[in-house]
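Quick question, first post here. What does this chain look like in 3D?
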Amino acid sequence: MRLAWKARQGSRLRTASAVLGLCFVAACGGGGGGGGFLPWPQFRHDATNTGRGEALIAASTGHLVWNLDVGSPVTSTPAVDGTGTVYVATNATPLQVIDPAGAAVCSLEPGLTSSHSSPLLSNDTLFVGSDFGPIYMVNASCALSIFFQTGGALVASPNTSGNFVFVGSSNGTFFALDRGTLATKWTFGAGGPIRSSAAIASDGSVRFGSDDGNLYAVSSAGKELWHTALGGPVQSSPAIGSDGTTYVGSNAGTLSAVGPDGALLWAAHLGGAVESSPAIGVDGTIYVGSDDKAVHALNSGGAEIWRFATNGAVKSSPAVSSDGIIVIGSNDGSVYALDQAGHLRWKFATGGAITGSPALGPAGLVVVGSGNGHVYELS
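> Answer (accepted):
Ran it through. Tokens below.
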């Protein structure tokens, strides 16, 4: 259904199709995907939610490249295309587009809709969630339509594989949507709100958590494969390792490893609720934040390798570069870059809590939003 929304550019209002044409054709390199290379296309970078990108950032120093005031707190994770164009949701709009120089290009303003869900950039299409329940779809032909109304707030971020777009809703329903026909393929009901963003396994099945305390595995046909109780609400988003093991945090203060068959392999107690979503390094090390104000590194057997203390709860999720640098935010308002041994490489203070996660852009750039209503690009 075509919507009568408008998009803001500068101080003027234009129709959504006109302004979004500018976004995709001019700022995004003619295809919305930035020439086919997507350094950080979604919340946890990839379908398995590893939080590990291809960027090389070991030479970065945390120098400020640009800083844009978007007028509202940013609690989501930006998506970044190959040109360096940034797509981010704020507490005022489900999509703000920022060009590589840090200038605002356009934003969608459907009424009073805000968004904590992070955008998904897939080929020439953006999928963005809303606190009021819909997933919106913006395509490269500049058509703006309501993709699906879930009936509950979307805190979880969408993920995609093949012809499917997956997302869970705070009403406890998990949706599989056909991205070509916009039809609902199937739904699955959990026992509580779903704030955890799904990871997609190699066989097409999905893993996601729920406030009912379970990690669920659901087949590509929508049938439950198993669920595993983790002792507390699961608002962390699972990451799937190369051997099929799923790593996920819980508000019970644990990071758990669950086997491909649903068996609980281990649960490490971290000293505070784990809303942060784990990242998996190239060597299999798992990195995650906790409300105990620390960033933790664990090996694949659940033993802690190191912890790095910040001055606030760490609800942000780590982004890991291909050369082993871990970048993460804290509620103390700072972005931290750590090496594989847990030593501080650099720190950048934003002045507002960082609950969203950094994104790694092209040329070693780091993009992050802050609760002070600004988006920052660092090098």
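Residues 1-35 have pLDDT under 50 and may be disordered.
Helices lie at 16-27.
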